[in-house]
Amino acid sequence: MEFVNPEGLRLDGRRAMEMRQLRAQIGAVSKADGSAVFEMGNTKVIAAVYGPREVQNRSQQMSDQALVRCEYSMANFSTGDRMRKPKGDRRSTELSLVIRQTMEACILTHLMPHSQIDIFVQVLQADGGTRSACINAATLALADAGIPMRDLVTSCSAGYLNNTSLLDLNYVEDSAGGPDVTVGILPTLDKVTLLQMDAKLPMDIFENVMQLAIEGCKAVANYIREVLQENTKQLEVRRGV
Amino acid sequence: MLQSKVFSKRTRGGKVQKTVREVYLRDDLPCGAPFCKVCDTSKARLSPSASSPILIVDTNVVLSQIDLLENPAMDNVVVLSVVRDEVKNRNIAVFKRIETLCYNSTRNFFVFYNTLHKDTFVHDVSGESPNDRNDRAIRVATQWYQNHLGGQTRVLLITNDRENKRKATEEGISAETIESYVKSLGQPNLLDLLVKPVSEDVEMEDADALRPSKRKVLYAEHKPMSEITSGLRCKIYHQGKLRVNRYNPFEAYVGSESIGDEIIIYGRTNMNRAFDGDVVAVELLPQDQWREEKFLSIADEGEEEEEEDVHLAPNSADDALRNTNPPNSADDKNSVPCRPAGCVIGIIKRNWHSYSGSLEPLPMPAASGSIAHALFVPKDRKISKIRIQTRQLENLLDQIIVVAVDSWDRQSRYPSGHYVRKIGEIGDRNVENQAVLMENDICDEPFSRQILNCLPPLPWSVSAEDLANPIRMDLRHLLVFSVDPPGCKDIDDALHCTTLPNGNFEVGVHIADVTNFVHPGTPLDDEASQRGTSVYLVERRIDMLPKPLTEDICSLRADVERLAFSVIWEMTPQAEIISTRYTKSIIKSCAALSYVEAQARMDDSRLVDPLTTDLRDMNTLAKIMRQRRIERGALTLASAEVKFQIDTETHDPLDIGMYQIREANQMVEEFMLAANVSVAEKILKHFPLCSLLRRHPTPTKEMLEPLLRTAAAIGLNLDVTSSKALADSLDRAVGDDPYFNKLIRILATRCMTQAVYFCSGDLSPPEFHHYGLASPLYTHFTSPIRRYADVIVHRLLAASLEINKLPQIFQDRTQLTSIAENLNYRHRNAQMASRASVELHTLIYFRKRPTDEEARIVKIRSNGFIVFVPKYGIEGPVYLTPRGEKGDGEWFVDEQQQQVKKMDGSVSYSVLQSVKIHMEVVEPQPNRPKLELSLI
């Protein structure tokens, strides 16, 4: 199948290095300590953060750092076929773990011993790149909750189809069976916290694709920073400073 | 600008699902006109002069008039992406042709992505069919072009759809039909390329006037697609690919999975306008109509008779005559004929392309310049005659021309088509060769500049870097030699054999290192992969790689240093392989022997020079290996290969005879097989999912049926349960005359399919088996100069030795599979072309030499039999009764005995019997010579 036409345009009209449209909104769940909705094209994810709060299960409490928990789920209406998926299937367990580990790496857990932070992410609409969107949403929600972090974590995916590196795959491109590299970075520290790929790629191409994904992450980071600044300004106005 | 596209589609499970896709509309897509002041003109491809109009074509114009579009007279064409996508969905062959046009730098074709442009994107309107939407999109794009370019040039919409044309005119777009546009160009020859429109489109005025007003309906209507699909689902109809009998165009087979057998279709009426290769839907006839056909040919209602030709003896089941006679005898009334018969009720996918052939001579040629109707007779006998219209009849009568098929309506006996181009005069050997090449889709164009630029500069010699390269072993000290057919210039294999101090032998097979020069992704590599194989015709060779590589740089000629890829074994004197090494190397061949020379050296006991001793050692090893292979169950098959002696000046054949196989041939073959097997093991170990291997499927019981029946008739019992059993029983089959065994082997070979290339990831290991060689794994490694498969295998082997990286294509299994399919296709075509070339030369040879020769009966028919002439490797019918009559019961067939007998029992002919025949070239029609066999 032709994913990139000779003009260099992808099926949805983007060029190889272009991302889908980003949208973000902070404070979608007022009951939570921090929350955000993050959209990458037609992929829409909501994240809510509770904490730092008392550890619910005493046996899990740690005296030197905070406990970070993450729960990922997919809304039943998120894909076209209205299939009821059982909770805790392999995919969502794996994704929960991936998100938890990525977020844990940037939260300054040692500042909050004997406490727990809960991150809930739910996919409202899925169109490829849910993993990245979840991480981006979680970052925003954590920032909204005022949880101390080393840096923002941002994530973006890239793939390789028709001998071309493609940024931010949508569902059609994702299901083509090519490699899908998901990268998460700490943009100001310039460190990679997440790198996943379930396919084989020659080393030089892989580096190329990964570099593209990192560029994508940086673009996402810029956008998130803008959103946060805008949000802070509004908070300032509301407080009447 | 962001838009979303919403549509519903049916999932595989049958549920309807709503899909939402984003569309990012762009404002940076150029219009393609070089004089445009707004767009980026760096990629503009349209004609720089604003005087010629810009043509915007609709989908049907591209689909039906592609031959016309390929003509240089049609230029400055914009192909909209909506058209491009639709063409891609409807006909992939046409799509490829239009793509080639769009990227041909000499033509001004431009693809405009109207579906992604912000001004030309159209929204779905409820109640509008996809077709209407596309038509609207085309009109919107045309309008945009008109406004965008202002008054700078004329923009013309070319459409044959009446409704679309009307709407376009209403919207103020200038629209024309293809006919009126071509007429306005004022080139009458172009009109021949035009395809006649189907009735619902705009009528072509002059075509209609000449047509007889009333015609009788000859063929049944094709069922609508919806009925076919439902019929297929409830098993009333059966789907399959139609294959026309090569020797009897009135008989076809449809391999159907739903009933697990082949359905026979008799006669053109039942075939109902289906072509060879079409995917059709078939309905079974009632059982009492499952008749048997034993005539050599049957005359279809009122149609002039077509008879069997004399042709080369087939080499495998793929090109052999299919046996249709059920084994029951005529008097056994109760038995059910074993094959179901059917008739075509609908065509699911057409396999129309262009065909080469000539026009049927007409009694009275029309006046020049006016439109004449003519019948075109394709060279390929599987294809029916085609009706064409032409304005240049007198130019075409004695020419071989190319014709494409357009339609076949119920009223006409023949399909109608249009003239595409001419190849040359009938009878001219070059032209006939050209037609053979074209019929088999073989590219004979000289290599382009771009490709030749990929070659290393000449004169080439092994450089110091090559010598210093650590991956290359210096084997120049070894006594390496090559053994090939006489006159061979593309020497791709060489051998060496030395005795080791421990009494073992070191045997090396050195193969030309083609991949050192052909790098993946270069134009040279792309071309080679397209060509797939070199084609050997009787008097010439069409190379896969350019001549400097084929004959010089890669060819392992004597006394020059050459780069090679070597497989080196250590073998015990019992020919057990102890170790295998693979390495790139540098060799210096000391002798390029022919098979005859090598054989002579081995036989001459006075010679004791090192080369001859090595030859003898190798021969001893080869014999042991061969014996072991045969014990494993490898089949010794035989084919009737012929060899021509060609006059060097006139290129006429001087003599033909069977190709003689010597011990030296077998020796070289044995080591090549061993090298191929070793390499196959190595690459499969490293790349289990993306190796290119070769397999030979085990023949099914049905395929061996004709062999068994023939064998039974002469009292021979063949065991076909395994290849080993078959090999043994073939060995036992020795009759009283020396040729008997070979004949049986030839018949056996004919029952098998050909070996094929495949990608190891597509099949499971048990299916990798090579039946003929009785080897679990096999590949092609030893002829990279003339086969692309070997080039791929070389790259795989180099990658497994970590010499090179694995090229990109191996990452993509679908791509590798398509390469394997292309190789199989090219390989088959190359063989067909060689056979056609031999047939052509046989005809030329016998034209001046009517000959009497001994022949063997291989098949029995009720009005004659088919004989095989061993000396010339040809096969053809001999008629006992004059053609056209059905024999009036004078002769009858005894199925059990495989005999045809005269009613009074005085004369009988049985299968495998030897007969004397007379061969002579006759010309029933001027310029159409054929070989005729008759009994003496």
TrEMBL record, chain A:
GO CC annotation terms, alphabetical: cytoplasmic exosome (RNase complex); nuclear exosome (RNase complex); nucleolus
Domain Exoribonuclease phosphorolytic stretches: 18-148, 151-216
Keywords: Cytoplasm, Exosome
Major localization listed first in the record, in broad terms: cytoplasm
Cited InterPro entries: ExoRNase_PH_dom1 (IPR001247), ExoRNase_PH_dom2 (IPR015847), ExoRNase_PH_dom2_sf (IPR036345), PNPase/RNase_PH_dom_sf (IPR027408), Ribosomal_Su5_D2-typ_SF (IPR020568), RNase_PH (IPR050080)
Compartmental location: Cytoplasm; Nucleus, Nucleolus
GO biological process: one example: U4 snRNA 3'-end processing
GO molecular function annotation: RNA binding
Keyword Amino-acid biosynthesis: no
Top-level division of the source organism's lineage: Eukaryota
Sections of the chain in a coiled coil: none
Family designation: Belongs to the RNase PH family.
Name used for this protein in its record: Exosome complex component RRP41
Organism: Tripterygium wilfordii
Automatic annotation (TrEMBL), chain B:
SUPFAM superfamilies: Nucleic acid-binding proteins, PIN domain-like
CDD domains: PIN_Rrp44-like
Keywords: Exonuclease, Exosome, Hydrolase, Magnesium, Nuclease, Nucleus, RNA-binding, rRNA processing
An example Gene Ontology molecular-function term: endonuclease activity
GO cellular component: cytoplasmic exosome (RNase complex); nuclear exosome (RNase complex)
Record-level GO BP terms: nuclear mRNA surveillance of mRNA 3'-end processing; rRNA catabolic process; rRNA processing
Domain spans labelled PIN: 53-166
Cofactors required: Mg(2+)
The UniProt record lists the keyword Cell cycle: no
Subcellular locations according to the entry: Nucleus
Classification via Pfam families: OB_Dis3, PIN_4, RNB, Rrp44_CSD1, Rrp44_S1
Region: Disordered, residue numbers: 301-335
Family: Belongs to the RNR ribonuclease family.
Name this polypeptide is given: Putative mitotic control protein dis3
Organism, scientific name: Tripterygium wilfordii
